[in-house]
Amino acid sequence: MNEVVGFLALVIPAMVPFVLAAQGTILSGRAGVFNVSQEGVMVLGASVGFLASFTLGGNTIGLLVAAAAGGLVGLILALATTALRMDQFVVGLALYFATLGLASLLYRVIVGVTLEPPLIELLETYPIPLLSDIPIVGEVLFDQDLVVYFAFALSFGLWWFMYRTSAGLRFRSVGENPKAADSLGVNVFRTRVWATVAGSALVAMGGAYLPMVYTGTFTEGMVAGRGWLVIALAFLGGWRPHYVVAGAAFFAGMDVLALRAQVADIAIPHQFVMMLPYVATLIVMIFAFRWARQPGFLGNNYDRESRLSG
Amino acid sequence: MSEVAAPPSTTTARVNRAAWYAGSVLAAFLVGGIVIVLLGLNPVVAFESVITTSFSTGFGFVETLHKWVPIVLCAYAFTIPLASGKFNIGAEGQLLVGATAGVALGITGSDLPPLLLVPAVLIAGVLGGAVWSGIAAFLMVRFGVNEILSTVLLNFVAFELIDYVASYVWPDRGAGHPATIPVGENAMLPGFGEPAVHAGVLITLLLSVAIGLAMRSTAAGFELRATGANPRAASVHGIRTSRLTAGGMLVGGAVAGLGGAIEVAGVHGNMLEGMQSNFLILGIIVGLMARGNAVAVPFVAFGIAVLEVGASAMQRSAQVPIEVVLIVEALILLFLMLSDVLRSKLGSRS
Amino acid sequence: MTEAPRLQMTGIVKTFGPVRALNSVDFEVAPREVHGLLGGNGAGKTTLMNVLYGLYRADAGTIELDGAPVTVASPGDAIAARIGMVHQTFLQIEPYTVLENIVLGTKAARGERFDGPKARAEITELSERFGLEVDLDAVVEDLPVGVRQRVEILKALYRRSRVLILDEPTTNLAPQEVDALFASIRAMVDEDLSVILITHKIRETLGVCDRMTVMREGQRVATVTRAEATAESLAATMIGETPVTDPTDGEEVAAAVVATGLASADEVAAADAGAVSTAPVAVRVTGLRVDNDQRVEQLHGLDLELREGEVLGIAGVSGNGQVELAEAVSGVRPITGGSVRLGDRELAGAATSAWLGAGVVYVPEDRHRDGILPTSSITENLLLGSQRSTRVKSRGLIDWKAARQRAVDTISDFSIRANGPGALAGDLSGGNIQRVILARAFAHHPRFLVLHNPTRGLDLKSTEFVYEQVDAATREGACVLLLSEDLDEVITLSDRVAALYSGRLIGEWTRGQTDHYAIGRAMIGLEAQDV
Amino acid sequence: SCGAIEEGDHEVSIAGVFSGPTTDADYNALGAKALLDMESDEVKVAYSESVEVPDVERVIEEYVSDGYDIVWTHGSQFYAATAKVAARHPDVTFIGEFDGKPKDQPENVWVIDRNFHTVFYPLGTLAAHLSQTGRVAYLGGLSLPFSYSEVHALEQAIADSGEDVQLSRVWTGDFNDTVRAQQAAAQLMSDGNDIVITSLNLGVVGAFQAVKQEDVGDAWITVKYTDKSANGPEHYAASVIYDFSEPLQKIVDQIQAGERSGYFALTFGDGTSVDVGDEVPAEAKAAVDDAVQRIESGELTVELDQSEVK
Ligand SMILES: Nc1ncnc2c1ncn2[C@@H]1O[C@H](COP(=O)(O)OP(=O)(O)OP(=O)(O)O)[C@@H](O)[C@H]1O
Ligand SMILES: Nc1ncnc2c1ncn2[C@@H]1O[C@H](COP(=O)(O)OP(=O)(O)OP(=O)(O)O)[C@@H](O)[C@H]1O
Ligand SMILES: [Mg+2]
Ligand SMILES: [Mg+2]
């Protein structure tokens, strides 16, 4: 029992950056904008989130400033790919570089060379009354920090929005067939812009969560490829909010399991254990063809007057 | 992700485009210069070293050529599958597995004569890379697994794999870093001149010509592009699209794998963690800047190699922090794209 | 006229780069009028309507509705001004249901949940009133084109349009369905709508339109009332000349005559009656079994035979196995049973390229999806399929210079309206795309030509052109399998005609013995007469 | 510190090559500090940071061609390349780092032996005396020979202490992956270990956060390179602290005196020291002091065993 709780207690926070960043990714993806700047934006989020918490005091501020920074990057991506119709992939990669550089530069300017890393308080947990008293489930799910609750509420909200509201119906149509959506009066431009801005803000929050829950400080490599995995996760989850949560649980679970196996002194070279999450994902994808569908117009720019788009 | 077709190219159009591109690079450096000034550093010294490092010394030029090789090869690893509409984001994994295969042969076969061993090492690299992209190709054709996903994941698997090889199979105990012991002398590519340029540069040059020709003027190259443009129409007209896309992935992986083997046999003499550097991203950028045009790839790659070599010089000579280099690279890319937009806007007005 | 016109477009100009698609066009539609919009491929009909619908922004010109000027900068504005449009190529969200496609973006969907009972009831009522039956919960991508057409019309009606644009709506419909559509149009006009109908079929135009406007090369050339118009005058205006036909044989007469809609096809065909071919059998299909995309068997052991130089016409409403038949006998779709022999060569099971090599050439129905590489040049599109042939190569490599020259020649031979051989195929108008496809098909010197709806959406001149090409091919000994929903076309071109219904061939009529109504009945399954 | 070398400006010019950012408050910050301490009217310094192993040869060559007199590569991963370049440029003097004594050391290369195994011995002593559960853990980054030598030194110390303590070890695969270090440390704790001996760079910040989740006195952490007690003073057991300023100064002095090759082993009093936390019981602290003394006096030698840990 304790084993299970201990395991899940590690999995839940490990899921959060994946969930936030992947929901951000599918939000813009469902509007047709294929963002590939996640790795950089998460690092920027971690840096800016940490720096804001450190200088202004308070993690909430840090998260908000990180979200704003991410949103700004999203705005650049959105405008470049809608108003200017620049290639989404190239702009995304350029922003990956830029945000990666900016993250370190800001840290260098504000903190500089020191032998003592500056620290911020970690996020506090807020047990939900009654619910947190449920054995196992309560301990694991309802005794967490606020960002955990936010991530899950957001996922449910996104699912509700996309599949249960008419605004969601309009929203998804933009990523499937913007010309058809446009011909019915749906504002493709505006939809793409807000989805990309909001999506990128979520990605940055996913990054900002890392220093706040794990380390209390920013380090350059702390995102460690999660941004790239988030793209894989969006495909794995078929660009749907509910499947993405399941996919994030799978990623985080395999990751924690891999370390667990090492701690338990399993006599396999640790490199093979560390491969596990990636190999397992590939195997799962073999059976994922049923749900792994992507938005029909993902990655393409829409030009109303061109016959080639739409 | 769209419009990878090469724009029409008359001579004036080409000159015009080159001027625009030069302008965007300048603009990027201008903005970068402002950042450098704000940091209280000297942008003139910084940029001088970017431009001069590759050309002022023989060593700088050789280093630039040596950096050019993996960038070109990774760019092909990206653009060849892209022609058929597939995104190979796995060049670094393929490069590493190619390097592993190359190093395996270079170590175990160190007694063989160079005439045998060097080609064997390169071929091993090619096969290693092809196997790695082949996994993605198989999953794509057989099970419909998205290739972006599989190639990204296989990169991570490759990182662990080479860490294992460098830690357990042929570890170099004194390296202070995960690295294998050196390959035999006989496995090393011959060099020319002083400082020596390894033969991989020549191989890459020849390969570039071959790939450019193949993509442009062979039936297979045409079929690859046709598949990318409209897979249904291509198959209606007798093209075996899944075989072709899989083939494109395999060739892409093979080229990246060759890059790995050349890095082993030409530059490092062993396999070490981190040898993939940022060739994947640079390769993708080169491929995209060249609009997938195989002929343009080596030229664009040379520009990027000069920049890469010059970028670290900027840090050395003017203490410009490394992250400013990333920002300048991003700006170059953005401004290049922007120049395309502006150029076509102005063009359509006149 | 005492009433203000329902729609008044004045001085509309639209350019695409170097192409001047609309050159100061005036266009007027009266209230409760069915207004035909005619013109050759690329004349600018769709462009004019896209301007009206806000999809294209005009360079100059004004629009008035019921006497009041309106600005239409986006489709949203058009919908607000109660303009509805059924597009030439469907604009539908394929993974959505019919209901979702219809309510998408409307006010009704905004206030309540999108699958609410109110919207459902309203749409059901509309579809009954106008005879447009659909299953609201079906997913659009699974539907046959005819039904998807109805979805498009319902979309416009649901938005309470007062002006409804139908851009070539009949191309996908069987004769009976066309009749039903025209009945719906009449019902709409009775309810105060004005309808703009774009079509290439003069007979239809004369049948349903009150007035018609003819366009040519981006300009309006005439507007006439039905009373003033005759088929000949319309055709002449469209083409810009009186058609000079110098008939050398019966088929050409037939082609020209049908194209201009002058006479009943039956009469023409009768002129050359009874000529049963005795040439050797070129193609023999036996026991052909084929599945559709959903792996449901569509053809259950079909047999047919074609002799050299013969045209076998297959009439039928789409969705009865046409696509499966056409793709199976051209080697594109795998065959689950039976045999297809070309001469004495068995082709079943061979790769598509082998069929192509043997001389089987296929002109698919869906040009955009199956026919062209939209982002590639005309040169490259013309090369598609022959890239491995030695004809196009020099020293083992594709000779692009020669290919470009061939493209230049083809553009002039086939009168393709394009900006040179480097123009992207996707930028061409529908008719010109078809010319590219046909040019490519004929360049293969086919032994067996499979044509599926080859003139759908083509103007008179182009249609005539296709007929001439088919004729030339048969004279060289090729045999042709013609699948078409255009009964006139089938009867005119074919030596023998059969109807395809539910994956079975029903009846057989040889040239001169055809009977429009008998075939029509067979097409919709009223004549259960197996061969 | 700008500009290439101009003749006659300075007596000596020194270039430093660092593997990570100098803002890391860790190994590279130590290096940067040592180098910048040297800077004066007579001594010109410059450095490159975040240099990857595959690139280091080029970076060194560039400093050589810029005319630097001394090139110092900070980190044993750079030794092979340093020796290789040194052989090509007999006029320039190089300072490389190594774990142990290299076999063939060029005439113009100084070697700094980081001597990790020796300084880890007292940490083993400390852990043996401090542990209440009888289970202690080593948390490393990459499984390299030097980290094996640390593990063997710990084993030796534990055996010498006579306590019944079991040592387990985990490698996160990255010295700087803070998040994974946090997860691994958390798992080690939940597995019953009460002392975590880290051999990490930035990753240690994450490990601190995990250890801090436990009650004070029930869990301890030791760190390497810099004093990171501020991360969690109540759980902080000890650091092995490194200082490169003095050694570098000494070596440069000798080079200027004409001694162009040599071997400098960092050891207690000469570049390293052990700092024991205030909360550590006196008995354990005494044991550590004793171990340090015995090493300093030469009474005790810690065996250098770089063989793979099974
Ligand atoms: N985990 C879940 N939680 C809640 N509802 C679920 C869940 N899994 C599936 N569903 C149901 O499935 C529906 C959407 O899932 P599905 O994967 O079928 O999407 P879809 O409509 O096919 O998406 P699209 O067509 O946009 O790709 C939801 O409306 C919901 O009723
Ligand atoms: N989006 C576009 N981009 C470039 N050129 C266009 C575009 N739309 C139309 N054109 C050009 O404008 C002209 C008019 O085309 P349009 O589609 O209006 O013709 P049409 O009369 O509808 O022909 P069809 O009967 O073939 O449908 C053609 O030359 C066409 O190539
Ligand atoms: Mg049209
Ligand atoms: Mg679905």
Automatic annotation (TrEMBL), chain A:
It is found in: Cell membrane. It is a multi-pass membrane protein. CDD domains: TM_PBP1_transp_TpRbsC_like (cd06580). GO terms for cellular component: plasma membrane. GO terms for molecular function: transmembrane transporter activity. Keywords: Cell membrane, Membrane, Transmembrane, Transmembrane helix. This is ABC transporter permease.
TrEMBL record, chain B:
The chain crosses the membrane at residues 20-45, 65-83, 95-112, 118-141, 148-170, 196-215, 279-304, 324-342. This is ABC transporter permease. Pfam families: BPD_transp_2 (PF02653). The keyword Transmembrane applies. It is found in: Cell membrane. Its main location: membrane. One of its GO terms (cellular component) is plasma membrane. It comes from the Bacteria. The keyword Transit peptide does not apply. It is a multi-pass membrane protein. Keywords: Cell membrane, Membrane, Transmembrane, Transmembrane helix. CDD domains: TM_PBP1_transp_TpRbsC_like. GO terms for molecular function: transmembrane transporter activity. InterPro entries: ABC_transp_permease.
UniProtKB/TrEMBL annotation, chain C:
Residues 7-242, 283-527 form the ABC transporter domain. SMART domains: AAA (SM00382). Keywords: ATP-binding, Nucleotide-binding, Repeat, Transport. InterPro entries: AAA+_ATPase, ABC_carbohydrate_import_ATPase, ABC_transporter-like_ATP-bd, ABC_transporter-like_CS, P-loop_NTPase. It holds the Pfam family ABC_tran. GO terms for molecular function: ATP binding; ATP hydrolysis activity. This is ABC transporter ATP-binding protein. It comes from Aeromicrobium camelliae.
